[in-house]
Specification:
The structure holds two protein chains of two kinds. By secondary structure, chain A is an all-alpha fold. Chain A has two domains: 6-114, RNA polymerase sigma factor, region 2, helix turn helix motif (Rna Polymerase Sigma Factor, Chain: A, Orthogonal Bundle), CATH 1.10.1740.10; 115-188, Arc Repressor Mutant, subunit A. Chain A has helices spanning 9-17, 21-43, 46-61, 74-93, 116-134, 138-149, 154-161, 165-187. In chain A, helix 1 packs across helix 2 and helix 2 (21-43) packs across helix 4 (74-93). Chain A is globular and about 55 Å long. The model of chain A is unreliable at 97-111 (pLDDT under 50). Chain B folds into two domains: 3-53, Orthogonal Bundle (Arc Repressor Mutant, subunit A); 68-233, Immunoglobulin-like (Sandwich), CATH 2.60.40. Chain B has helices at residues 3-7, 10-15, 20-32, 34-49, 61-82, 115-121, 138-141; strands at 130-133, 135-136, 145-150, 157-162, 171-179, 182-189, 197-201, 210-217, 230-233. Mean pLDDT of chain B is 78; it is low at 83-125. Classes of the chains: A mainly alpha, B alpha+beta. At the A-B interface, helix 2, helix 3, helix 4, helix 5 and helix 6 of A face helix 2, helix 4 and helix 5 of B.
Chain lengths: 188, 234
């Protein structure tokens, strides 16, 4: 029998869908770290981040959320679920504890179960995205920060920046277009 | 709202900046609009990269422990429901004699440690019940003990165990009733952290030879797959 650890994420998701706890555990080992990191960055509090991460993974286990290959990689799909829940938690708990980039000293602890080269790749990927974000015009970087990491709606951002909603929406779209271009250039 | 207005929302949608109502409306629009779908797919690559910009923080180990506990419990429950062992006397159980456990008592109620406490408490044991001790295969389960309590009319016997090792998520203890060469499944159970557990013997034990316990894969088996760990000679 093939070692479960040799399976690609998509195959693992198939086993998770059939109710295999070992496949689910491996899925968590692979993606729990990035999921929690995102939840923590958005929610700003360890307790809320834990709740968000746990609920997201439980929802995945219970198959309330179904993975489809058209949705991108399994990791992106999981992180999308975590992002939605983290933003919901922010909005419903009215936790306006929004962290700005580089604020609190976040403790970096490498995940113990992953090989060190995976960690190195993640750091490098992270570096490329951070560089691409820095390359954006300031107002585009700002709307991404406020929307994606801050969890604010376009209306709230328009108020905060004292700009029309249409302008804010336009900046979001331009920001993603430019980001895509920058990341494409980085890969080339 | 016109397509042009929806189209303006592509960026906000991907960044999660649309409030719930607008998001739902946008998703409905996407179902009908190829142009917007294409733009969403193109820009989604950029949105998907954003989580990688965050500083990595390891989740506390307690998170995984708590998550896996819930997952394994649900996996065992699902397995038990999917393949219940045969309970020929199930429809004949006289429920009013038991303390009601829950409306819609399901097969899995018998797969439990605590659940049987209600079963037992319902019986006032001044009814001439017999209790028989079990012989235990100590080489395989250690110094465990077990006994079967049989009410006077032989119906609804209860097996109680102590000191049995935990089964883990992949297996379960299964109770059988042996009558001649016929062995019929009675129930499934697991033990608590303290090694105690209880299980029902729904079939009448009158005239039967023994109550036995074996360890089986989660969900139970149609027939014992190994020698009994516990035997109560009747």
């Amino acid at each position: 029998m093939k070692d479960i650890r040799a399976l690609a994420d998509e195959e693992l998701m198939g086993l998770v869908g059939s109710g295999d706890p070992r496949a689910f555990e491996l899925l968590y080992d692979r993606h729990g770290g990035p999921a929690y990191s995102l939840a923590y960055r958005i929610a700003g509090r360890p307790g809320v981040a834990e709740d968000v991460t746990q609920e997201a993974f439980l929802a995945i286990w219970r198959s309330g959320e179904r993975y489809r290959a058209s949705r991108g990689s399994v990791r992106s799909w999981i992180l999308g679920i975590v992002h939605n829940r983290a933003v919901d938690a922010l909005r419903h708990h009215l936790v306006h504890d929004r962290r700005r980039a580089g604020d609190a000293a976040l403790e970096y602890r490498p995940s113990p179960d992953l090989p060190t080269d995976v960690e190195a790749i993640r750091r490098e990927e992270g570096g490329a995205v951070r560089r691409a974000l820095r390359a954006l015009p300031a107002e585009q970087n700002r709307v991404i920060e406020l929307a994606y990491f801050g969890g604010y709606t376009h209306t709230e951002i328009a108020e905060m920046l004292d700009a029309p909603v249409g302008t804010v929406k336009g900046r979001m779209r331009l920001a993603l277009q430019k980001l895509r271009y920058e990341l494409g250039e980085a890969v080339a | 709202m016109t397509h042009e207005r929806f189209n303006e929302n592509v960026g906000a949608y991907l960044l999660g900046a649309l409030p719930a109502g607008e998001r739902a409306a946008f998703e409905r629009h996407l179902e009908d609009c190829g142009e917007c779908r294409e733009e969403v797919a193109t820009l989604r690559v950029a949105a998907d990269a954003l989580p990688h910009a965050v500083e990595p923080v390891a989740p506390p180990p307690a998170l995984k422990a708590s998550l896996m506990k819930a997952v394994e419990r649900e996996a065992a429950g699902d397995a038990a429901r999917a393949r219940p062992p045969r309970w020929p006397a199930w429809p004949a159980l006289r429920l009013p004699r038991m303390r009601p456990l829950a409306a819609g008592l399901a097969a899995t109620a018998l797969l439990a440690t605590g659940a049987l406490a209600g079963y037992e408490i319902g019986r006032t044991d001044g009814e001439g019940a017999r209790t028989l001790s079990a012989s235990v295969d100590a080489a395989r389960v250690g110094p465990a003990t077990a006994r079967v309590t049989i009410p006077r009319d032989g119906d609804q016997a209860v097996l109680r165990v102590a000191g049995l090792p935990a089964t883990g998520p992949e297996s379960v203890y299964q109770v059988w009733l042996k009558r001649g060469d016929r062995v019929t499944s009675q129930s499934l159970f697991t033990v608590g952290a303290d090694g105690t557990g209880a299980a029902a013997v729904p079939d009448r034990v009158e005239g039967a030879d023994a109550v036995m316990v074996t360890r089986e894969p989660a969900g139970g088996s149609r027939a014992p797959t190994d020698r009994p760990l516990v035997t109560v000679t009747l």
